[in-house]
Amino acid sequence: MKISILNTSIFLTVLLCLEFFIVSAEQNHHSVKKKGRRNFEKKQREPRKIRISKSDNDVSRLAENVIVYAGGEELLLESNINAGDNIIDAIVNVYDLLSERMDSLQNRVSAVEHKTKEISDRLNHMDCYDVKIENPLAMDGVFSFHLDYKGKRPIKVYCDMITEGGGWTVIQQRLPREKNDTSFYTGFLRNFHDYQVGFGSADNDYWLGLDNLYSLTNSRQYELRIELGDFANKKAHAHYKRFYVEGESQGYRLHVNGYSGSAGDSLSTDREYDNFTADGMLFSTFDEDHDTSTEINCSSFWNIGGWWFNRCSWANLNGPYNFQEEGEDCIGVNWHKWRNKQCLKSTKMMIRPVRHS
Ligand SMILES: [Ca+2]
Question: What pTM, to 2 d.p., does this model score?
Fold first, then answer.
């Protein structure tokens, strides 16, 4: 019986101890859980910031960053919604970063494409002929070219895409005017520097410039065509098989030959040399006398603009724009082999690469 009472006492004692341990374990568990929640809530009150470096470009690493931020695995399990928000934030940040870099790359690609096209045009489109070859349906109009490999800025010129197959680069132009025409038009009584660099505008009267002429006509072989109109609205033309000018150090000396056409030859020496031929002459203006006359400066004496004067010339296509009065001589825009001392209403000098067939 004593043994029985002892056994019962031991059993009850063991049972009480076991209950004590269970209660302590539960209290400890709740204590840990509560402490963890406080830490998590404290972190949640802080502003949300996720620092993403450029190397954080894979989602698993981003998720890892978010778990560390959330304070541990246990809390992440309890707050998986918040952690999910953080992952989405991180992915949005990466998306923004990638978009920004894509935009930057796109801008750089566009810049390279633009430069490539510019270089390509410079190499492939030197003049109106190149445009016509690439696009046979191209119409008359103003186009931009880099006229030589050193060209920094594109230069605007008028292209004649119709006359005799087109592809003509206009180097000089005087548009037809009427007496009652009060609109502005370019003056051609200019100094040497203006004739060097060019003046006027491609959609109106203009002179392309001796430096540009030198660059163009020394890069390939050109033919020259001159279109003329008088005040009776008659037309004529002069065609030369070969045309080029030398550079500044050679006084922009003119070389032109191989005449054909309806206007007569007022430039070359094909038939006979005389004191008015332009071929072989240097360029002169009122302030730069390089003509062959020892007595006068042709340009300033006759007031006829810049030209390849001899003593003096059969042509003044850069003379002042004067209207022809019936029966009177007119010193202005002249082509003597066609209309002698009558002033002309319109002129157009244009060049095209010689085609070797
Ligand atoms: Ca002289």
Answer: 0.67
